[in-house]
């Protein structure tokens, strides 16, 4: 009489097992396919939350860090490299030699003992987009499935493109590549997920080169960043504009370390470096710019005799193009003067940091309002600020100001140590290897843009309009308000 009961129990157990397996299978399918099941062209909240935990095939450290790279037609990137002779229109420099070694340029040979190891190159300051792209190709959290991605990278060489057309070319030609790019992008499913607000591109020129505000043929640059679709994207460049969807990341320097030990060896060299000069300046006057402080700075440097070392970079002088000469100069000085030039910023900022030389700024737009991801918020910890609002009222007194600071040796040593500690964050490491203990400028930039895009997702989750504040103009970004200088 017990046997039928045993069979019934066995059948019940099998039934429950089937139900359990079916439930688990459905759950797995939901985890994998939720974004596909809910996708619509009009719902901006679709697939906003990055990869599902159950779908990770890479280490957990990649969660929230996956990046999808658009496979753009070669006319938007590779063809510029293949036809590098045409990049240099309107300039006197041949760009082709700078494109070797992943955009680092040729290796520097004899450095006369001023450089260490073989990780120094003759790097052009305008090749950030090439360097960044080559580094991104080896990024540890790339994904071929855009539904997993927290960000979408658009490898358009905008700087090389506009370099063809900045001089004496019609605006229709200047804008053609930008218009073709956004037309290509908006046809992709990745665009419809957040209408481009998870997309970013990197440019090797200042962002103002892409923000022509009129259709006057005499106006400068292209209209890339004023195209409606482009407004939904973020751009990283060597100098940002006053719009909220532009971000500044460091100019490429000539040091591209392969290992942590190379960075540490260089840092130690800068700590023990003898610095016979109080301050130094490498540059040329800007007589055509009404409010340029450079002429006054050069006058003060010359008048300071043995306290200041000047490297004249006037037109026709070639010493300033030699990285060894610049490193030699900056290593010999306690402070390095960093006035504005043709624009707010200059690569010399990062050359001086690399040399352990404390930068001296005269305008907040040169660094403080720019490189917020890479440089400390407390700017007085690593730099000196001497505000000059109007060159006509020049009262800088550089010599006296820096001598006064120099009297507090403990403060100066602390500032120098802060500068030396910044070195990893302002250099772009060699993509063939990987730093283990340091974040370089690429790592910092990727972290910054991922945080930016996640904040947009958070806004959407809260039911708010993601366009509010995304691409607004900030009239106060480059004003002197909020920054206190030396007294």
3D structure, described in words:
This protein is of the alpha/beta class and 487 residues long. It has two domains: 67-252 and 440-462, no CATH class; 272-423, 3-Layer(aba) Sandwich (Rossmann fold), CATH 3.40.50. The protein has 13 helices and ten strands. It has helices at 2-38, 78-82, 128-136, 158-163, 171-186, 189-194, 260-271, 294-303, 323-331, 348-354, 398-406, 409-422, 441-461; strands at residues 67-69, 151-153, 199-203, 234-237, 246-248, 277-283, 308-312, 333-338, 358-361, 384-385. Strands 1-2-3-4-5 form a five-stranded parallel β-sheet. The chain has a five-stranded parallel β-sheet with strand order 7-6-8-9-10, with helices on both faces. It is globular and about 65 Å long.
Low-confidence stretches: 1-15, 26-59
Strand order of the largest sheet: 1-2-3-4-5
Q: Helical region count?
A: 13
The domain tally reads: 2
State the assembly state of the protein chains.
single chain
Q: Indicate the radius of gyration in whole angstroms.
A: 27 Å
Which sheet architecture does the biggest sheet show?
5 strands, parallel
Distance between the termini: 102 Å
- From N to C, what is the helix and strand string? HEHHEHHHEEEHEHEHEHEEHHH
**What is the SS-derived class?**
alpha/beta
Indicate the overall shape.
Answer: globular
> In total, how many beta strands?
10
What share of the residues lie within helices?
25-40%
Q: Into which percentage range does the β-strand content fall?
A: 5-15%
Mean pLDDT: 86
Keywords: Glycosyltransferase, Golgi apparatus, Membrane, Signal-anchor, Transferase, Transmembrane, Transmembrane helix
Subcellular location: Golgi apparatus membrane
Protein name: Putative Xyloglucan galactosyltransferase KATAMARI1
Family: Belongs to the glycosyltransferase 47 family.
């Amino acid at each position: 009489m017990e046997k039928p009961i045993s069979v019934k129990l066995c059948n019940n157990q099998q039934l429950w097992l089937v139900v359990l397996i079916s439930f688990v299978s459905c759950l797995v399918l939901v985890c994998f396919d939720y974004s596909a099941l809910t996708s619509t062209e009009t719902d901006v909240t679709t697939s906003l939350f990055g990869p599902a935990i159950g779908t990770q095939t890479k280490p957990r450290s990649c969660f929230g860090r996956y990046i999808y790279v658009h496979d753009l037609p070669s006319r938007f990137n590779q063809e510029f490299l293949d036809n590098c002779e045409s990049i240099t229109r309107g300039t006197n420099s041949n760009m082709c030699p700078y494109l070797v070694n992943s955009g680092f340029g040729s290796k520097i040979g004899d450095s006369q003992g001023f450089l260490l190891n073989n990780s120094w190159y003759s790097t052009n300051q305008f090749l950030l987009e090439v360097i960044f792209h080559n580094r991104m190709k080896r990024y540890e959290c790339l994904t071929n499935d855009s539904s997993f991605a927290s960000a979408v990278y658009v490898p358009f060489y905008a700087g090389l493109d506009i370099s063809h057309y900045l001089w004496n070319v019609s605006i229709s030609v200047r804008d053609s590549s930008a218009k073709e790019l956004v037309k290509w992008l908006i046809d992709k499913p990745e665009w419809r997920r957040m209408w481009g607000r998870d997309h970013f591109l990197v440019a090797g020129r200042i962002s103002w080169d892409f923000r022509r505000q009129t259709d006057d043929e005499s106006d400068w640059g292209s209209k890339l960043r004023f195209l409606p679709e482009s407004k939904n994207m973020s751009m990283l460049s060597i100098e940002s504009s006053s719009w909220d969807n532009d971000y500044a990341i460091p100019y490429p320097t000539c040091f591209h370390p392969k290992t942590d030990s190379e960075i540490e060896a260089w840092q130690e060299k800068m700590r023990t470096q003898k610095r016979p000069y109080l301050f130094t300046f490498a540059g040329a006057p800007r007589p055509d710019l009404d409010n340029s402080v450079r002429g006054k700075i050069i006058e003060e440097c010359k008048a300071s005799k043995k306290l200041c070392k000047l490297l004249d970079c006037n037109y026709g002088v070639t010493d300033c193009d030699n990285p060894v000469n610049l490193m030699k100069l900056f290593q010999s000085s306690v402070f390095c003067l960093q006035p504005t030039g043709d624009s707010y910023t200059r690569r010399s900022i990062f050359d001086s940091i690399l040399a352990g030389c404390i930068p001296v700024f005269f305008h907040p737009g040169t660094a403080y309002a720019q490189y917020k991801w890479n440089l400390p918020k407390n700017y007085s910890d690593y730099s000196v600020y001497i505000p000059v609002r109007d060159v006509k009222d020049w009262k800088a007194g550089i010599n006296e100001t820096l001598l006064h600071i120099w009297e507090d040796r403990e403060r100066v040593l602390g500032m120098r140590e802060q500068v030396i500690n910044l070195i990893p964050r302002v250099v772009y490491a060699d993509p063939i290897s990987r730093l283990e203990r340091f974040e370089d400028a690429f790592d910092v930039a990727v972290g910054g843009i991922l945080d930016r895009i996640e904040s947009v997702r958070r806004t959407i989750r809260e039911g708010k309009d993601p366009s509010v504040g995304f691409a607004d103009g900030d009239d106060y970004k480059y004003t002197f308000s909020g920054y206190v200088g030396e007294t």
